Amino acid sequence: MDCPNHTLNIDTSSPTSNVWYSVAFSLILAMTFTWALSAIGFLFGASVGRLQATCGILLTVFLLLRQHRGGRTRFLSLSCLIAILAGCLIISAITVDLTYDGWAYHQPGVIALSHGWNPVTEPVFGTWWARYSRSIGYPSNGPSVDALSTTFYPKALWILGAQAVVWGLPLDAGKYPALLLIFVVGLTALRALRQRGIPNSWAYPLSLLTAFNPVCVVQSTTFYVDGALGSCLAILIFSLLSYDVTRSGADLVLALCAALLACNLKFTGPVYTALILLPFAIWWLLEHRLVARDLLICGIAASVLLAASINPYFTNLRDFGSPVYPLNEWDVMEDQMSPGFLKEHSLKKLLISLTFSNLADRSFDNPATDERNFTNPFQSRGFDEFKKFGGTADLRIGGFGPFFGIAIAVTLLAASLLIRGPRNGIGFATVALGTLLSIVVNPQMWWARFVPQMWLLPVLVATAASRSRIAKPLALIIVLLLGVTSLIAVIGRATSSYVVTVAYKDNLKRLGHAPLLIDTSASELNFLPTLTYRLHEQGTTFEVAMGQCATPIDLLAIQGCKNGSRGP
Prior knowledge:
Layout: H1 15-42, H2 50-67, H3 71-94, H4 100-113, H5 125-132, H6 148-152, H7 156-166, H8 176-195, H9 200-211, H10 214-218, H11 226-246, H12 249-263, H13 269-286, H14 292-308, H15 310-320, H16 339-342, H17 346-354, H18 383-391, H19 404-418, H20 426-440, H21 456-465, H22 472-511, E1 516-518, H23 528-537, E2 542-544, E3 553-555, E4 558-562
Parallel strand pairs: 1-2
Antiparallel strand pairs: 1-4, 3-4
């Protein structure tokens, strides 16, 4: 094992990689700082504003200037920062999120936080919306709206997304954090693999596979938070691998930043983070490898976590008796799949999901129907399934792609060959154990977006197998299977985003500046805040009306009519 390095310097194998990694490190630290500053500000009556984003940007610039002394590398690092940030904002701004969850509660959260909502002083979203909605054209006779999920769910990604909106960018620009995190994952994984002695011929493809987790890719142009959680867990895992070798404060800080964000992205975040950290913590304690400086950094991070997590965890506990309310009272699986499927054992549901057969998937015309006939895992394979995989943000069956079941089988075989491997592979074994624990703790592990970290298991095993003569061919098979899967996901997401965005904008052009007529009795009420804000961005509004449309304008689940085209 290498001698401990207690500096904050970032050492990589080349000046260019040093620049790119320093940008990634500075970005994740600035994102965490911006979120924490906003979340703690809620306690003092402040709301999300330009100050927090300005502080985050200044912190990023300061870190880059501190890490690079030469004028050329400073210019290069700042140029990379501007290019990455601008690229993510542009991609996010020009693509439209038309997902159900995005419209129902993620986008309302970003809208509210970017326009003065303080979830600590005014916990209920509906109260804020009733006061604000009239200013953007919500009709006076419109139904009352109270998106419970917006009120009670963790808000880290919404806070970061709101930073783009407060600077005058369109609502869709708020999706940028997911893309930034994918970038950070790739550079963090590359550094860790190099630190562990993995040659570039393996380090580059493995780091790309880590970054292009299908769950992260298919949600990258949406407001879903599962992909961002998967990215944060990947950053946590690979920064731990780096820290185990370097003992660098920078690697520890990076791991803690990822942990802080993960805990405030989803209710499962704290559980996953704790289980991933547990094996490493035990190993380090047994090896007497924790030092006072590291414990101090961890203590500061814990203090920030407690202060920044008042909402939702402590407010939910105070007002409703549970930090994870309303999940303690709701059955989140109700109507998500057929009753017959949901009654099966968790392991059987996982095996069905790994077959990638949509015969077991939700019946969208009637989600409450009995489980359909499922006799052969290959009986419904076809192009439509591949298309659905790349274009669906929350695919229930086969969410990790068409070859993931095969990849898992090869992974198990490779792991069995590595059991008696060299002791220098214990780092990979430790993080793999923590990752496995964080997966099996969730009984809904068959649904890919609920356990995005499952994608990392084959990557970690393939990494360890690449150094074993007997297991290296299996590592190559895993890389090829995952590589094809990631490619399908990228192409599918790009195509789907383009088609959805063009259709949405065409419908808005048909509407023009005339009010959109909406039958609210037949519409999803939780979509109305997002609809109102999006129409306000276009310079128009909607009005409550009844009757059938001669030529309907379809915006997700809401169908409206252009004024004058509604029938009797």
